Amino acid sequence: MSNIADILASFELDASWLRRLYEHMHANPELSMHEEETYQLIVRELEAFDCEIVAPIGKYGICAVFENGAGPTVLYRADFDGLPVTERTGAPFASRKVVTTADGDTVGTMHACGHDIHTAALLGLCSVLDNTRDKWSGTFIALFQPGEEIAAGAQDMADNGLADKVPTPDVVLGLHVMSGRAGEVMSKPGPQFAACDSIRVHIPGRGAHGSMPHNSVDPTFTAAMIIARLQAIVGREVNPADFAVVTVGSMSAGKAINIIPNEAELVLNCRFYSDKVKARVYAAIERVVHAEVAASGASGKATIGYFAHGELLDNDAAIYSAVRENFDAIFGPESTTSDPKTVSEDFPIIGQAFGAPYFFWLIGCTPRDVWDRAVEEDRVAEDVPVNHMANFLPEYEPTIDAATRSAAVAALTYLAR
Amino acid sequence: MSNIADILASFELDASWLRRLYEHMHANPELSMHEEETYQLIVRELEAFDCEIVAPIGKYGICAVFENGAGPTVLYRADFDGLPVTERTGAPFASRKVVTTADGDTVGTMHACGHDIHTAALLGLCSVLDNTRDKWSGTFIALFQPGEEIAAGAQDMADNGLADKVPTPDVVLGLHVMSGRAGEVMSKPGPQFAACDSIRVHIPGRGAHGSMPHNSVDPTFTAAMIIARLQAIVGREVNPADFAVVTVGSMSAGKAINIIPNEAELVLNCRFYSDKVKARVYAAIERVVHAEVAASGASGKATIGYFAHGELLDNDAAIYSAVRENFDAIFGPESTTSDPKTVSEDFPIIGQAFGAPYFFWLIGCTPRDVWDRAVEEDRVAEDVPVNHMANFLPEYEPTIDAATRSAAVAALTYLAR
Amino acid sequence: MSNIADILASFELDASWLRRLYEHMHANPELSMHEEETYQLIVRELEAFDCEIVAPIGKYGICAVFENGAGPTVLYRADFDGLPVTERTGAPFASRKVVTTADGDTVGTMHACGHDIHTAALLGLCSVLDNTRDKWSGTFIALFQPGEEIAAGAQDMADNGLADKVPTPDVVLGLHVMSGRAGEVMSKPGPQFAACDSIRVHIPGRGAHGSMPHNSVDPTFTAAMIIARLQAIVGREVNPADFAVVTVGSMSAGKAINIIPNEAELVLNCRFYSDKVKARVYAAIERVVHAEVAASGASGKATIGYFAHGELLDNDAAIYSAVRENFDAIFGPESTTSDPKTVSEDFPIIGQAFGAPYFFWLIGCTPRDVWDRAVEEDRVAEDVPVNHMANFLPEYEPTIDAATRSAAVAALTYLAR
Amino acid sequence: MSNIADILASFELDASWLRRLYEHMHANPELSMHEEETYQLIVRELEAFDCEIVAPIGKYGICAVFENGAGPTVLYRADFDGLPVTERTGAPFASRKVVTTADGDTVGTMHACGHDIHTAALLGLCSVLDNTRDKWSGTFIALFQPGEEIAAGAQDMADNGLADKVPTPDVVLGLHVMSGRAGEVMSKPGPQFAACDSIRVHIPGRGAHGSMPHNSVDPTFTAAMIIARLQAIVGREVNPADFAVVTVGSMSAGKAINIIPNEAELVLNCRFYSDKVKARVYAAIERVVHAEVAASGASGKATIGYFAHGELLDNDAAIYSAVRENFDAIFGPESTTSDPKTVSEDFPIIGQAFGAPYFFWLIGCTPRDVWDRAVEEDRVAEDVPVNHMANFLPEYEPTIDAATRSAAVAALTYLAR
């Protein structure tokens, strides 16, 4: 352990370089799978290091392979896409970029989920490792991933030869900034982020004039019964000790005011910390939907389509134990145990592409004064900006410091001589 | 027509005899299919007439056949059972009889549905016809039926050879006293009383400890969904111009406080004026029940049992036309058009036993002062006692008069020379 | 009566003129409240008659006043707007017109509801009356109304001085072509078309991330409960002998796939034959909506807005009796009794504008061979095109004949010398 | 620690005495709050020890106070009531006792929840402590409680002066045998057993004849809507990371087949591991019930009564830490971490009566061969008898041994010199 502390102490990162990088990325966010300029920026920065750049993998995926003798292979992943949110942080480097959506609307773009921190921290880690080669041995792979927000980028890299283009890692690492006291390093074994899917349910009926219900099979009533039953799946079919969420994200049927519609549509969103629970709930949803359509007497059959899939992020227990011991040693009381979070990530797909175990942790980024006051006043839920909000802005110094150093600690847990 | 008026004018009924009969029956009501004494009373009275008494048919059914030369055969039916209601009419001849029920409770008995009037009126009609044989020809059958209140008596007579024991009638007639201005003769073609069934729905589930819903299939939730859907059958699957009622008369599940029950039971009661609508609704109920059990994931199958059947009382259009013309002539403005009523009768079974068309009408029996005041104050629903209530008591004079005379008019429509 | 038959026999309409008029209108339908050319056509045709043209009343309303000495004043109304339906009748004079809707879509336009027949018949009636002035006396007002399909035209005329600009009629008349054997004249007293309203229900909730339902008040569940309860209003709160329809024409909530929506919207459509039943149902809907919002724990309040109002079309009994007698005399077995129809009309607003009683009847227009075959095969519901369908096309000869002549019979019931 | 091992090693319990005691109790179970003979048996056994017997406290509560110099006061509780279950274990000492219930039914009685083991173990512990007085100092209170199964006994003792009659303990201890490998000692900090309440919900309506729903307010529909909404409380209002169960244990309404009932009743059973979650759910249940009654238009108000209350059993973290360390030392791998259980206990009321912290653990009692085979075949849920089942029988030797010794370890954690 003292080795890792020594390595960290032996090299001082160029803080102004890192800050410039971050602020540039923050001011120039690009939407998922359209990160052309960020891609070029990262490649350009990587060219300064003694590494092999493998890019693009898929549309904009990048790997930088740092070979350094015998030893384990560690892959660390950062994502770099922004969001269609109009920034309201008031930062001098706030984004002013506007894009036109597929619907023809214009919307601002923003790094509202901290991926700029993630990318800066990984470039920082590259700098650390590139400058301390005598103190570690093995192979380090820096993976920069586009399109995390739409759950597309990891899959795109996996589908385009990721596993063939770089050495197979022994462990896959990554982190996410999140609301929490800036600088806190939060981790846990097992489920950290939820498995998630969206489900489009198309409910058939038979339209008729609104005054002639006996000629119809009213799909709005079928939809209502399905909505009522979905929560009973949660309340009656899931072990109350397990975690399951079934949300109706949208419902729609009918446009004319005096016509019973032909069909209705529900879009569900479901989350779990267990693939077994997920399987049971999905079976129940399918059973309920088909039976309710039958109960309504529709001649058609419901269609049920799954999309926007998010894998369960289920941290490997052994990596967790090994890294957490070092987190505790380096960060002291700022190394804490995370709760499981209900959001999702496509990070597990990177590990799965290699068949490699993975570990993912969280870095608190809320400005410390805001956080401390909110905690004191019991107003965390009300006062602390969370990811994706227009006023989400990490407190730079403690956040980048904890992100870069925790990334180094985790990688060096395996690579330090 | 003038013939009928002449016949009615030619003979004066013994009013004190009829009243004594009525008051004796009223004071001595007997429950359905236990009408031993009333049966004997009727047979005794019939022995005074020149007729053939065919009795018992089934348990307590009676027919008196008055043959009088060539001509049509007319059957007229009256019922004679009382109800388990403790009388609160204050009449000097009120029932004081008490019986012990199967549950061991004691309850008063009462002619709370006017069957005493029905029987007295038919004995009166027998007297009229027996004393005016020269003015009519054909065959008249006076049928006295037990057990109407439990829908058992007509079936019992039909099952025990009714159709073989008396001549087949050309028309079957009958009437019922009902709230409405005493003396009013109310009739309509087509549906007069509703078809009705009770339906016992047994809903399978799987019991479990109350804290372990994931080990159960909760039949109370299934029951709730079925109850919700039943009204949608009425609101969505029945032509809004048609009449249909689906009522949940009872629901039950579970006894222990902390156990999810194994099963639930609903008892439904349904009413219709059309056998086609009935068929559609019953098919829908069965579809809904089975699909909701499937939606809940129960491995068992629901059972659906029909009982307490009531036939649609659907007046023959031709009899109605012929008799109504005479009602209008004899009763003037007191012959009115009835609404369809939602209650049920086993009267149609008598006609069906012979394959004969039938006609059934209503006689208003509410004391005239009560009725007129209620109408004036728009308080009919609140102030007028209805059948089966403890304070239901026909105003004797106008009611027995209209009942006896309308029965005579209807019979003589076919029998008058 | 023989007078009316004589008048009809005394003048022969110019059938080729009428047919040209009809086919021209049919080929050139205009959408509701955009009937500029049809307006001009009608005014031009009216100029051929000895009448006073009062136009426009409102946007495109027209009255032609035929004064002809002392006597009653009769107003007869025809409507003249088309529909956004792409015609598929295959007629040589089928519409090929296309319009661009507010949404930017293009859609065909079509006289899919027979208003071209209505207008032609009224111009035909004007010709009859203008040419038989010696045989009638009084005042005849031909009223041509735009915008019936969107329930706007009658109100627009009433709001713009209709009652002040023409004499007050003693009776207001009108008719509608409808599926049924072409040439049949169908009428009834009392409710002929339903009262109707659309109701926009805005259901408040509180949005949250889809994985955090405990921070939300889910408006989709509230909507489901309301939908379930609406049919129970029909099944439990309306006298089963009454007519009431509550239809959910559209439901909508949410756009994002993983967000619990802030709010939901239902649009209902309700129909009745009684204003009393309507009042009870609307009170129940409001009670249910507000209570379900409360049950969900929303802090906001639902809003309930009524629109697209249709008055109950409740035929005056006296006009019906007088006219029906003449219909029976002139049309024989082709004068039949109509069922009440569940659709709605803004015709009553014309009568109400004057405080005058009204009568409205139906003319069968289905090609006779189609109708007879459908009846024989019990496939009326499947095989007979109904109003608003793309293949709805009246059989011209019997339909225009029955429409024109029944209009003349009804008007002459009051005006014939 | 070695002290405790030494103390346990220094005295050998009279195993045949203990076994006779157990088998006698097992053969003679008494129902809750009717444990007259068991009470006398315990008192008799206690008389052999050098202790002060304080009894009865309430109906059948017993405390035996062992004073032994300065030091902490430790109270250990065992319960001793049986259940109305007909035993089917096949044991030679199986119960053959039959009782007559309040309903007049007869039912067997059985120690189907292991309270006989609990009581024997505590008498064993008394023997250990009474014979090793030189090795510990302080005060030990053995508390024997009746009526646990109906959540009555602890409250009865608390209400009848428990806290005044014996010294106030520093810690309160207890255990429960449970399915699990016989001899396993399972413990956890915080919530071990659930908080629980039953809730009787009376739903007002307005009865009417089944054919006249418009005169009713149908309470079965209200009940159905409430049942539907209860699961949405679980699925939408509880943080999915929290534990909450809302079960409908019984529902009932109506007896007559053709009457809409006046009222309905639901009995709910709810369980939680957090009083905060409980408060939120109960508020939601009350909100839902009252709003649904309002939605149905009932004029009456629902009543909601809580009963059969079970406190959250929330183990004190400090006692857990101290005792668990010793469990691990003494029992090695047979000291494991328990899951929270969804059942409830009135044990916390003993601690609360004194304002003292408490700790409660579990002892596996399933015969080891049964358990091992079930685990191997993944059939634990199917094959392992659980508490309250007629075939529930602890494997005596390892169970009594672990129960007695773990009780001694826990007590001596505080009392050992």
Give the distance, in angstroms, between the N- and C-terminal Cα atoms of chain A: 10 Å
**For the record, what CATH class of the largest domain in chain A applies?**
Alpha Beta
Strand content of chain A: 25-35%
Which radius of gyration of chain A do the C-alpha atoms yield? 24 Å
Molecular structure report:
The structure is a homotetramer of 417-residue chains. Chain A has 417 residues and is an alpha+beta fold. Chain A has two domains: 296 residues, 3-Layer(aba) Sandwich (Aminopeptidase), CATH 3.40.630.10; 115 residues, Alpha-Beta Plaits. Chain A is 38% helix and 26% strand. Chain A is built from 13 helices and 18 strands. Chain A has an eight-stranded mixed beta sheet with strand order 1-2-6-3-7-18-8-17, sandwiched between helices. Chain A has a four-stranded antiparallel beta sheet with strand order 12-14-10-15. In chain A, helix 2 runs antiparallel to helix 4, helix 4 packs across helix 13 and helix 7 packs antiparallel against helix 8. The longest helix of chain A has 22 residues. Chains A, B, C, D: Its cofactor is Mn(2+). Chains A, B, C, D: GO terms for molecular function: hydrolase activity; metal ion binding. Chains A, B, C, D: Keywords: Hydrolase, Manganese, Metal-binding. Chains A, B, C, D: This is Amidohydrolase.
